[in-house]
Design brief:
There is one protein chain. This protein is an alpha/beta fold and about 300 residues long. Helices cover about 35% and strands about 20% of the residues. The protein contains twelve helices and twelve strands. Strands 3-2-1-4-5-6-12-9 form an eight-stranded mixed sheet, with helices on both faces. A two-stranded antiparallel sheet has the order 7-8. The protein has a two-stranded antiparallel sheet with strand order 10-11. Strand 4, helix 5 and strand 5 form a beta-alpha-beta unit.
Length: about 300
């Protein structure tokens, strides 16, 4: 039976690849896409999600716009990484499929209340504003979430937007704090994992060699945003952060981690947005998340390439 998921996202090239991987995988039933402000503003993320669905030929996927700003802070965006559109690197046409009339938070609440408890997995791959807002408005849904599989945070890799904080958590740390406290099962896919999912030149050539529009588009996206990571980290390519969440759902054996306590710093002078991951279990606080640390990168790229071929 297919895993039923909702992707909450702020596309972003790597978000787009995560959506494509989900749509290319028969093991996954994508119930909808909810959009949030993050990498770029909400009008662009909502348009970009629809562009990606159309690229995959899946205009049946409902796309909902959510919050256009964090719960309590001014929005911080990442055009310096993703370009002014969020999907720079290739020109995709303006979407023709409609944006749904409902607010994303209403869709999240309604779906979790309607579907059998435990049957829907949430996959947030941007700031956690929509998820936290849904939990605040409808606390009863926490017990109905099958699992939250999120891309965000870091421990060994520390921060990528500040010295201490990963971008998705930093944009809305209060939302992240609320999500980690909600009691639902959580899997964290942090920078510690995603920085091992590097699109090297041979891996990008494999995308391009697929000969379909999806492969060529993914190759163009990674060509664009790798310039930032090469300069920043001196790495041989760009990390594909967000598709790691979908890959974990499909092939959890490609990953390793441990159940630990994770808290989010919201008041630190230098550490706001820091993911306080108790990897060594020294705090005595109970575990609230499966925190991943390692990835079989060859297995990950084999899976991703094989699935993109299907589109």
């Amino acid at each position: 039976m297919a895993q039923r998921i909702i992707i909450d996202t702020d596309p972003g090239q790597d978000d787009a690849v995560a959506i494509l991987l989900a749509l290319a995988s028969p093991e996954i039933e994508l119930l909808g896409i909810t959009c949030v402000a993050g990498n770029v503003g909400l009008p662009l993320t909502a348009a970009n999600a629809r562009r990606v669905c159309e690229l995959a030929g899946r205009t049946d996927i409902p796309v909902f716009a959510g919050h256009d700003a964090p719960l309590r802070r001014k929005l911080v965006t990442a055009e310096h990484v993703h370009g002014k559109t969020g999907l720079d690197g290739v020109d995709l046409p303006a979407p023709s499929m409609p944006l749904q009339d409902r607010h994303a938070v209403g869709f999240l609440i309604e779906t979790l209340r309607r579907e059998p408890a435990g049957s829907v997995t949430l996959v947030p791959i941007g700031p956690l504003t929509n998820i936290a807002s849904a939990l605040a408005r409808a606390p009863d849904i926490a017990a109905r979430i099958g699992r939250i599989v999120l891309m965000g945070g870091a421990y060994f890799e520390v921060g990528n937007i500040t010295p201490a904080a990963e971008f998705n958590i930093y944009v809305d740390p209060e939302a992240a704090q609320a999500v980690f406290a909600c009691g639902a099962p959580i899997t964290v896919v942090p920078l510690d994992v995603t920085h091992k999912a590097l699109v090297t030149a041979p891996r990008n050539a494999a995308f391009r060699a697929l000969g379909n529009r999806a492969g060529a588009t993914v190759a163009a996206w990674t060509d664009f945003f790798e310039r930032y990571d090469r300069e920043k980290y001196g790495s041989p390519g760009a990390p594909l952060h967000d598709p790691c969440t979908i890959a974990w759902l499909l092939r959890p054996e490609l990953f390793s981690g441990r159940e630990i306590n994770v808290e989010i710093e919201t008041t630190g002078q230098y550490t706001t947005g820091m993911t306080v991951a108790d990897w060594w279990r020294v705090s005595g606080r109970p575990a609230n998340a499966l925190f991943l640390r390692d990835l079989d990168a060859e297995g990950f790229f084999s899976l991703l390439t094989e699935r993109l071929r299907r589109l």
